[in-house]
């Protein structure tokens, strides 16, 4: 079947080409997202990949599978994008109030969340390979280390095939992988307890209790649901708050600034994790993604980017009274 589609596509049959590549479109988008960390950049890379594949059909010798061929093109498009654009952090929003001194500054504030609706079928994914912490850790590696790690350790391509994709040797890829794995061990959080299954009653209960406390400015109740080493981040703002005292200080300062105005929220999902859109006075006020650790919350990431809302099926405004 693949050979028939290739033959037709090489004659200029766009429908055959679409049938050939469409099964890989979503996984290619996730691949580019892992390498680049931002949805618009990933979408651009996928479009460039498919255009290059269409133009390169005459040179495709079928020594690799169509899937491997597409991953080769996509990987090079991502590496080129990183080289050409660099890693310029987006402009950080100016806090509307005097925020407490942060515990540290975010090293990769350009990373965005990915809607679960854009992920391939869950059966093909491991949660830890799509979570925000993993995507952010990948961004801290040199680009070719990121590519080698994703191709081999996440996607399972053999060393020889990954080396061919990266235009290098198997020995070089092996060394690159060793360095990437070593760095990743120092930049990713330690082991966590298993999170409740996605969509389970336990996940809904924990997320519901956290959300209720958060929107009610019940700081003590929020802190009671956090792990001892929890942290709060607000990309693209660089500020991060680590531990109960620091997080509580920030939440109280935020509540004081709002002077009794309450949030409303709408649930969604991002990176295989529970999330919700916040609204203040009916307007977007941040997309919050929760990282769960057993029956506690280990990380609260609030993305201060209103352009994300449509991607997550969230409205541009809400009627707080109608939501109760």
From TrEMBL:
It holds the Pfam family Sigma70_r4_2. Residues 133-184 form the RNA polymerase sigma factor 70 region 4 type domain. Residues 177-202 are annotated as: Disordered. GO terms for biological process: DNA-templated transcription initiation. It comes from the Bacteria. Gene3D superfamilies: 1.10.1740.10, 3.10.450.50, Winged helix-like DNA-binding domain superfamily/Winged helix DNA-binding domain. Keywords: Sigma factor, Transcription, Transcription regulation. GO terms for molecular function: DNA binding; sigma factor activity. Transmembrane segments: none annotated. Residues 20-88 form the RNA polymerase sigma-70 region domain. Residues 181-190 have a biased composition (Low complexity). SUPFAM superfamilies: NTF2-like, Sigma2 domain of RNA polymerase sigma factors, Sigma3 and sigma4 domains of RNA polymerase sigma factors. InterPro entries: NTF2-like_dom_sf (IPR032710), RNA_pol_sigma-70-like (IPR039425), RNA_pol_sigma-70_dom (IPR014284), RNA_pol_sigma-G_actinobac (IPR014305), RNA_pol_sigma70_r2 (IPR007627), RNA_pol_sigma70_r4_t2 (IPR013249), RNA_pol_sigma_r2 (IPR013325), RNA_pol_sigma_r3/r4-like (IPR013324). Belongs to the sigma-70 factor family. ECF subfamily. Interacts transiently with the RNA polymerase catalytic core formed by RpoA, RpoB, RpoC and RpoZ (2 alpha, 1 beta, 1 beta' and 1 omega subunit) to form the RNA polymerase holoenzyme that can initiate transcription. It comes from Jiangella aurantiaca. The keyword Transcription applies. The keyword Transcription applies. This is Sigma-70 family RNA polymerase sigma factor.
